[in-house]
Amino acid sequence: MDLLPLIGDVDEFKEIMGIINKEMDLVSLSDENLRRVFMIFEIAGGVVNGRTKQVTEADAEQLWCSSVDGVVAVAKQVIDYACEMNFQDLDGPLKQAVVEILRSACNIVSKQRVFDSSLQGLLEELQVEVGSTMRERLVGGKLENLTKEQDTLPLSWPRNGRISLEWIQLLISTFKWSSWKDPKEFRNVMPVTVVKKLISAASKIMREERNCVKLRVREDSEVIVVGDILGQFHDLVALFEENAGFPSDHRYFVFNGNYVDKGSWGLEVLLVLLAWKVLMPHRVYLLRGNHETKNCTLAYGFWAELCTKFGKKDCKLVFDKCLECFRTLPLATIIAQGVYTTHGGLFRRTCSASTQCSTGEKRQKLDTLSLGSLREFAKVNRFLEDVPENDLLSDVLWSDPSSEAGLRENTKKFGLLWGPDCTEEFLKENHLKLIIRSHEGPDARTGADDARNMLNGYSKDHDTVSGELYTLFTAPNYPQVDGFDNVGAYAVLKPPLFDSPLFLQLKAAEKPEVPPYDVFIYEDMDSDEGEDSRLTDSDEEQDMVSRDAVGKKDSTLMVTKVELNKKIQDQAEKIKQLESTVELFLKDRDDRSRRMEEMLSTLLQQSSRKKRGRGS
C-alpha cells in the first residue's frame, strides 16, 4: 500500500496506534482479523513516522511475530504466578477469571504457531502447564488435588465448531484429571452436549468411508497400527505422549478396534480417538471391534460405565449415540496396497454380494465353507448394532487364526478358525504381503507356546509363501485388575513398501487403582422399570467403588497438600500480583470487548472511505 496519500493524517493515525496498543483485545480475534489489525497498525506507524515505502504483508507478519513473542513471555509469567496460587482463597468469579487468563495465553501461543511451526513444542508445553495449573499437580510423583471442590470449568465445544490440536490436548488433560476423581464427577467436566456433538462429527465422517478403507500413504511418512485398548485410557495417552507420538501429516494411525469394555475409561478412550478422527480424518482411521456392538457393551462394562458417569437421566442418550457411532466404523484397511488390517480376521463366502443364488445353491454354499472375497466384503451391510451369527460381518469381528489347515466354524464363540493355507490364499488372491489383526490378548492364548502367548503384545501366527499374519494386542497388564504381566505392542510400518512391520512394546502407565465397572444383568433396554433398577444397583455399587478408591489416596493427599500450602505461603507477593491482575481483568473485560468491536468497525469504514476517495 502506498502511504503518500495519507501523510496529512498523522494525528488520526497516532490515535489508531494508541487504540490498538492499549485498548484492543487481540487475543479473541480470528487469525484473519488479527492480520488485518496488524496491517492497519503497520500502515498507521508508517504514516506517523513519515515513511513513504509501501507496506506489505511481510511487514505485518514481522510485526505480528515480534508482538506475539513479547506477549508469550508475559503469558508464561502469569502462568508462573498461577502455579503458586491458593485456589481455596478465591471465590467463583476469580477462579473463572484465572481460567480465562490462562486460556487467553494458549490462544496467543497458537497464533504464534501459525508463523513458526518450530514453536509447536512451546504450545504443547504451555497447554500442559495450563492443564496442570487448573486440574492437577504432581508433587513427588503423586497426584494432588488443588482444592476439595471441583476447580475446573466444563469443557465446551469450540465456538467455530472446529476441533483444534489445542482442544484435543485440553480434552486429554481434563480426562487425566477426572480419572482420579469420583466417576460421577465426569458429567461436570464433559457435558452431554459436547459428547453428542463430538460423536456426531466423527460419525458423519466415518459413515462415508468404505467397509475396507484404502490408504494411499505419503512416501515420507510412517503408519502406526494399534490393537485392542479396551478402556485403558492412561495407556493410550502413554502411547501418544511417550512412545509412538501424536498423529501428524507424516504419521498415520490405524486402530484395529475394541476401544471400550473391560477397563474403566472406555468412554475417554473413544472420545479422544473420535476427536483425532475429526481433526485429521485422513491420518487417523478407526476400525470396528467385536466390543463395538450392543450386546458386548451391555455385558462387559461399557453400559455400566456410562450409567455411572452420566446417571439415570442421560446414560441411555449417550449409549445410543455411541451405538450410532459404532455402526459407522469401517471394518478393515489396506495400507499402501500391500498390508491388510482388521479386528478379527478372514471371512466366509456369501451369496448376497455376488450373483443371486437359488435356495439349493445357497444351502450348499452355507454347508461348505469357503473363503470370501474383498468384492463381497465391500458390499456387506456393516451399519448394524449387533452382528448376526454365522455371517460375514460376524467373521470379520470374531474370527481367529489356527495352526491347523482349513476353514471351519469356531465352536467356542462366533466367527471362524482359519489355517495358514487360507492366509496364503487370501494374500495371493488380493496381491497382499501382510495381515495385522487383533482381537486376542493373553487371556485368549493361555497355555499357548511362548511364541503365541501374547505376553509380548504380538505374535506371528502364519508365515506363508506370499506373506505373514500377525496378531497385535496393545493393552498392557490386561485385564485392568488382576491381569497378566504382559506388555502391549504397536506396529510401525515404514516406506517404501510399508510391509515389514517393526513391533514396539508399550509398558503399563500409572493409573488409579479402581476396579472396572461391574457387569449389568441386561433385561430390557427400552423398559423404564428395568432401566431404573439397573441404574439404582449400579449407583450403589459405584458409590462403594468410589469411596474405596478415594480412601486409598487420603493419606498421600494430606502430605502433598501440606507441602503445597507451605509453598503457596512463601509466594504471597506473587499471589497478590495475580489477584490484582484478575480484578483488573474482570473490570475491563467487557469494556475492552466493546471497544474492540467499535474500533474494527471504524477502521474498516475509514479504509473504505479512503479507497473511494482515491478512486474518485
TrEMBL record:
Reactions it catalyzes: O-phospho-L-threonyl-[protein] + H2O = L-threonyl-[protein] + phosphate
Cofactor: Mn(2+)
Coiled coil (residue ranges): 561-588
Record carries keyword Isomerase: no
SUPFAM superfamilies in alphabetical order: Metallo-dependent phosphatases
Family annotation (InterPro entries): Calcineurin-like_PHP, Metallo-depent_PP-like, PPP_phosphatase, Ser/Thr-sp_prot-phosphatase
Entry EC no(s): 3.1.3.16
MF GO annotations: metal ion binding; protein serine/threonine phosphatase activity
One Pfam family this sequence matches: Metallophos
UniProt keyword Transferase, yes or no: no
GO cellular component, one term: nucleus
Domain Serine/threonine specific protein phosphatases: 287-292
Keyword field: Coiled coil, Hydrolase, Manganese, Metal-binding
Ranges for region Disordered: 528-549
Family per similarity comment: Belongs to the PPP phosphatase family.
Name under which the protein is recorded: Serine/threonine-protein phosphatase
Organism of origin: Citrus sinensis
